[in-house]
Amino acid sequence: MKTHKLILASVAVVGTLVALGICVAFWAFAKIEDSAGERRNVRTVINSAQLLLSELKDAETGQRGYVLTGDEAFLKPYLGVRDGLGGKLDRLRELVVEPQARQRLDNLVPLVEAKLAELAQVIALRRDRDMDQAIALVATGDGRRLMDAIRYETTAFLELEEAVFVQTEREFQATMRRLFVIIAVASVFAVLFAIVFALLSFRSAQQRAKDLVAQQTQRLLDIQTETSDRLQLAVGTLQVSEERLAVTLDSIGDAVIATDGAGLVTLLNPRAQRLTGWEPADAAGRPVEDVFHILHQETRQPSTIPVMATLKNGTVHGLASHTVLVARDGRECPIADTCAPIRDRTGQIVGSVLVFRDVTEEYAAQKALRDQQFYTRSLVESNIDALITTDPDGVISDVNRQMEALTGCTRNELIGSRFMNYFTDPDRAAAGVAEVLAERTVRDYELTARASDGRETVVSFNATTFFGRDGSLRGVFAAARDVTERKRLDEVLRDRGVELEAAKSMAEKAN
Fold it and tell me: pLDDT tens digit string along 395-414?
C-alpha cells in the first residue's frame, strides 16, 4: 500500500514537472516569437530608412543629369521620391517605437523637405533654360550640405535602430538560454523521477514499470525533438537577419570605413575595399590613416583625416575640396568624404564611420559642361550679327555683344527687359514677335533700333522659334544685321536712277 502511494505520488510529481516544463516552454516560445517580431519590425525600419536615403541620392543624381543634359528622363527618380515621400515617412513613423529614434526621424523630415525644395528650384531654373543660375545654385553647396545632414540624421537614426536590434537580439539570446536551461532541468528531473518511479514500481509490476518508463521517455524525447527543431528555426532566422544586414551594407553605392573609439579600422564594405586596395583581414585593427591615405590634389601634401576630430568633438566633418585618395597599389582618385560619430545607447562615442565616393566622373562632367558652355558662348559672341533670344512673351533671355553695341545697354540690363523697348516703333517690334510665333519664321523684317544715347540704326531681322526637348515652345531666336549703309546706297541709286531718267528724257527731246 505504501509502495502504491509512493508510485502515485511519483507519478503526480512527474506529471506536475512535465506540465510545468511544457508551460514554461510554451511561455519561452511565446517570448521568442515576440522577440522575433520586434527584430523583424526593427529590420523593416532600418531597410526603409536605407531605401529612403538611397532614393534621395538617386533623385539628386537624376537632378544633376537633368541639369547637365536637359533630358526629362533623368527626373524619374526625383518624381518618384517627391510623390511617394510623405507616405513612406508616415509608415516609417508608425513603425518606430524608440523615442530617440522617433526624434531623429522628426529631425529628418524638414531636412528631406528642404532637399526636395532645393532639387525643385534647380530643376525649375534648368527648365527655364537658366543654366548659369542653376549651376550657380548647385555650386553653392547647399544641396550637398543638406544631403550631408540627411546622411548624418539617417546614420544616427540607423544607429539607434541598430542598438534596438542588438538589445532585442540580446533578449532573444537570453530567452533561448533560459529555455535551454529550463528544458535541461525539467528533463533531468523528469528522468530522475522516472527512475524512482521505475524502482518503486519494480516490486509490484516490473513490466508495467518498464512500459511506463518507455512511454515517459518517448514523450520527453518528442518534446526535446520539437524544442530542438524550434531552436534550429530560430537560429536560422537570426542568420538570415545577419546576412540581410551584410547584404545591405555591401549594396551601398558609397564606400564605408568604420573605426573604433581609438581610430582603428573595424569594417570596410566592398566599395571601400576597391577604392583603398585593402582587404578587411589586412585592414582590421590598423590605424585609419594607414588604410585611408589622402593628399591635397594641388600641393600633394597629406590631408587631415577627419576621424580624430569626429571622435573628439562628436560632430560630422567633411574633406576639403581637391582631395585625392591614394590606394594601396598607388592608384589615385579624387573623392568626397563625410565622417560621422558612432554612439552607443547612452550617447557615448564608440567609433566613427567614413562615407566617401569616387568623384572622378563628376569632375569630368563638370569640366565638360564648362567647356561646352564656353564653346557655345564663343560661337554666339563671334557672330557679326546682333543675336537675341526671347520667351514667347517677348522678354529677352540672352544677347551677344553685338546686341549690346546696337542698343548701348549691357547684357544684364537687356536680359529680363522687353524686346519692343529698344526700337523706334515698339508696336511693329511686338508685331514681329507675334508673326514669328504664328509663322515660326520671319525673313528680312526691318526695324529701327534706338540706342540708349539716341543713336538710330536700321536693322534687318531673321527670326525663328525654338522648342524644348519635350516639344514645348520655349521662345524666339533672332539675328539682326545693320542695313543702314545698304539703305543709304539704295537711296543713292534710286536718286541716280531718277537723274538718269530725266537726262534721257531731255536727250530724247533734244534729238
Answer: 999 998 888 988 889 989 89
3-class DSSP assignment, residue 466:
strand
Q: Which residues contact 278 (CB under 8 A, 6 or more apart)?
A: 268, 272, 291, 328
CA 67, 73, 74, 76 torsion-angle sign: positive
Residue keyed to cell 544586414: 245
CA atoms within 13 A on the CB side of 7: 17
H/E stretch holding 146: helix 142-202
Residue in the block written with cell 542588438: 166
φ and ψ of 282, to 5 deg: -75, -35
Rounded CA separation 416/447 (Å): 21
Number of H helices, E strands in the chain: 15, 12
CB of 476 within 8 A of CB of 437? yes
Measured between alpha carbons, how far is 415 from 437 in angstroms, rounded to an integer?
Answer: 20
| 85 closest CA partner among 118, 49, 121 | 49
Q: What angle do CA 251, 246, 59 make, to 5 degrees?
A: 30
Task: Report whether 390 contacts 476 (CB < 8 A).
Answer: yes
Q: How far apart are the first and last CA of the chain?
A: 175
- Condensed to tens digits (0 to 9), the pLDDT of residues 269-324 reads 988 888 889 998 888 999 988 889 888 888 888 888 888 888 888 888 877 667 88
Cell 534710286 locates to: 494
Helix, strand or coil, per DSSP, at residue 394:
coil
For residue 41, give the C-alpha cell: 519590425
* CA distance linking residue 33 with residue 390, whole number of Å: 68
pTM exceeds cut of 0.70: no
**Local structure of 86: helix, strand or coil:** helix
The CA-atom distances, in angstroms, between 211 and each of 197, 204, 448 are: 12, 13, 121
- What span, in angstroms and rounded, lies between the C-alpha atoms of 476 and 431? 13
- Mean pLDDT, to the nearest integer, of 125-147? 75
Q: Do strands 323-326 and 473-482 pair parallel, antiparallel, or not at all (unpaired)?
A: unpaired
Kindly report the three-state secondary structure assignment for every residue of 403-465.
HHHHHCCCHHHHCCCEHHHHECCHHHHHHHHHHHHHHCEEEEEEEEEECCCCCEEEEEEEEEE
256: helix, coil or strand?
A: strand
In the predicted model, is pLDDT for residue 145 greater than 70? yes
Instruction: Determine how many CB atoms are found less than 10 A away from the CB of residue 151.
Output: 20
| Residue 19 CA to its chain's centroid (Å) | 56
Helix (H) or strand (E) holding 113, with range, is: helix 99-127
Helix, strand, or coil here: 397? strand
